[in-house]
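Recap from last week: sequence in, structure out.
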Amino acid sequence: MSDYETESIQNTTDSEEEIIPYYIANKTSISIQKKDYYKKNRDKILVKVKCECGRYISKNQMERHKRTKVHQQYLDFLNKEKEENNNKINFD
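Predicted structure tokens:
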């Protein structure tokens, strides 16, 4: 067993002491696990995709980007452009 596994076992066996939330009692082990996960999956995490507004955003930040002013302004611009095109009359 590694150090962070034995720490979590020791924290859960003390029933008379104050109950400590898991994430506080196992802070070091959780941070080590997160670092290991990031090292193993760095390429997947940092993949950039092109948004419809033309910007390149990491895949995991796409939803956040869609709420930004830059993206919203681009969508407003597209909507205005579509309305203008629909209002034009063809005289052909």
